[in-house]
Design a protein that fits this description.
The complex is a heterodimer of chains A (478) and B (92).
Chain A lengths: L14 H23 L6 H20 L7 H21 L5 H30 L6 H28 L13 H21 L6 H17 L7 H23 L2 H25 L3 H7 L22 H10 L2 E6 L1 H5 L3 H13 L3 E6 L9 H8 L7 E3 H4 L8 E5 L8 H4 L18 E6 L19 E5 L2 H14 L3
Chain B lengths: L1 H18 L6 H12 L2 H10 L4 H31 L8
The chains are: A alpha/beta (478), B mainly alpha (92).
């Protein structure tokens, strides 16, 4: 990118450009600080403010640029965006956070794809000298990532919102078709890079990218969503960064790179927490093979208990670890869980929460729900913190979690989840599992935990059952 | 070329800073980085504002709407979430 105001140094910049570039510089610094402050709950809100100020500065600086003319259109577009964004932010229930996140990745990808497309046609028709192989290569990269993130995240949104089947959708030759599509898109992208003046190829390229995004995500099941959302987060960031290359805007490059690396780190954490690789998540279609073998085992006896018994056991315990999972989110049980936490704490029971990194549908999902229910965050322990405590714990109460508590991950080399780090609830003195029925979890894997002698199955809706237990405990108050 | 250095350095900086974020805050982290990368709003504004052709203005306008949604809802939701994280009050 040899042309443009950036490379020719500050000498030729107009006063407005200097103002804009200064606001960009300050905004970049504020964005880094925002993420730094987010690392601890105490300073986290300051991080949000820093990000907001940086954003406002950068927008103000951009509007001051001399080339910007269509103010009425800009204002209208921003008002429309705000009119959609503000209600989403205020009205959305916390259980819908994963969906909202997927949707915002999709908008981010769409914006990047559209800007890349607009820039291509603009340069092609008005400034063909700027459409070099380098800029074309970057546009192709931006469009590919942007459009595949757009449709891929829409699919993820559809699955999370349950508009689409959450089970993996698989068919024969799926990986072959997906890889073939990607290869075709790359071939066209390379052809465009070699000779950018082929306007007929870009729509085909865009179509292939859009289609690849759809096909990439439909075989992925709900349990893999934390990884996939993180990965799409990374793509959305990278596409914003690519937009920065196309527009020669360093602030975009920096902000996109920060987002991209954040998504990348989260994806790695999620993959480690499931003992799987990226390729395995994207092309493995977890769960469809293992579902079949569970049928024969359903006759085995389990011990079950009523809310009264569960309440009595919890009351006589000294320490309780609650392990929440996606089932708690589905049942919207977090507020009842908080009541349980309160009533037990009042009776002198030490209650903690053990949170697996992939519990729920996105990284940190359970923490947000429990925080929403006013459970102090110092009671929320990570897997590595809670595991050493479990052997001394009287009761482990599993609410709507399954695979992340399955001892087969430790003991059974034949199990598909073998090697995955789990929360060792089976080491607690008593285990109680709230579950709607004996059906196996998302991955379709039998959970040995349910058949252990010290395990009590509490059948019912998580919210209703916890509510019953709370009522029981409160009425026994002396 | 200098843009590549900027990208490289920002990525390393991002990896270092974000590694320190507690898993407790991973959801707010994701929505904050989302809001921040919606700085693509700035690029979309330029495309729309330059008024170079009807096509770029239409594409730019959609991009501005999409990025604005992310900016606005991203920051608001992050703040809404972070307000919920409280420490325990006086020990019972």
């Amino acid at each position: 990118m040899s042309e443009g105001h950036g490379a020719v140094a500050g000498l030729t910049m107009s006063p407005q450009e200097i103002v804009a570039q200064t606001t960009y510089l300050v905004a970049a610094a504020l964005f880094v600080l925002a993420l730094k402050w987010l690392s601890a709950p105490k300073t986290a809100r300051r991080g949000v403010w820093a990000g907001e100020i940086g954003m406002l500065l950068a927008i103000g600086g951009t509007l001051a640029l001399p080339d910007i003319e269509a103010f009425h259109w800009i204002v209208i577009a921003i008002l429309v965006g705000s009119a959609i964004g503000i209600p989403i932010a205020i009205l959305m229930p916390m259980t819908a956070v994963p969906q909202r996140t997927a949707l915002s990745h999709s908008f981010g990808g769409l914006a990047a794809g559209l800007v890349g497309t607009a820039k291509y046609y603009l340069w092609l028709s008005q400034e063909p000298e700027k459409l070099t192989s380098f800029t074309m290569g970057v546009i192709a990269f931006e469009a590919l990532l942007g459009y595949l993130t757009f449709t891929g995240s829409l699919m993820a949104f559809g699955k999370l919102q349950e508009l689409l089947p959450t089970r993996p959708i698989v068919y024969r030759g799926q990986n072959f078709i997906n890889l073939g599509l990607l290869a075709a898109a790359i071939v066209i992208g390379v052809a465009l890079t070699v000779n950018p003046a082929q306007p007929a190829l870009l729509p085909i390229f865009i179509f292939l990218s859009l289609l690849f995004g759809v096909l990439l995500i439909i075989p992925i099941g709900g349990a893999d969503m934390p990884t996939v959302i993180s990965l799409l987060n990374s793509y959305a960031g990278l596409s914003a960064s690519a937009m920065g290359f196309v527009l020669n805007n360093k602030l975009l490059i920096i902000a996109g790179a920060l987002d991209g690396s954040s998504g990348f780190i989260l994806s790695i954490i999620m993959c480690k927490a499931m003992n799987r690789s990226f390729t395995n998540v994207l092309f493995g279609a977890f769960g469809q093979v293992t579902g079949a073998k569970t049928a024969g085992a359903l006759e085995r006896p389990v011990r079950s208990a009523m809310p009264e018994e569960a309440a009595a056991i919890l009351e006589s315990a000294q320490s309780v670890v609650i392990v929440p999972g996606y089932g708690m989110a589905v049942a919207q049980a977090q507020h009842k869980v908080r009541e349980l936490f309160d009533v037990l704490t009042k009776k002198g029971v030490d209650v903690k929460f053990g949170i697996h990194p992939v519990a729920g549908r996105m990284p940190g999902h359970m923490n947000v729900l429990l925080a929403e229910a006013d459970i102090p965050y110092d009671r929320l322990l990570e897997m590595d913190e809670v595991n050493p405590e479990l052997p001394q714990t009287d009761v482990a109460l599993v609410i709507g979690a399954n695979d992340v508590t399955n001892p087969a991950a430790r003991n059974d080399k034949g199990s598909p989840i073998y090697g995955m780090p789990i929360i060792n609830v089976d080491q607690a003195r008593t285990v109680m599992v709230i579950k709607r029925s004996m059906s196996s979890g998302f991955a379709g894997i039998e959970n040995e935990l349910y058949y252990m002698d010290k395990t009590l199955m509490l059948f019912g809706d998580a919210k209703a059952f916890v509510g019953e237990v709370v009522k029981e405990l409160s009425s026994s108050d002396r | 070329m200098s843009n590549l250095y900027v990208f490289l350095l920002a990525t390393f900086l991002g990896l270092e800073v974000i590694r320190r974020v507690s898993p407790l805050l991973h959801t707010p982290l994701m929505s904050l980085t989302n809001a921040i990368s919606a700085i693509s709003l700035v690029g979309s504004i330029v495309i729309l504002g330059e008024q170079r052709s009807t096509l770029t203005m239409v594409l730019g306008a959609i991009a501005v709407v999409a990025s604005t949604i992310n900016v606005v809802s991203g920051f608001l939701i992050t703040d809404r979430m972070l307000r919920m994280f409280k420490t325990r009050g006086p020990q019972p």
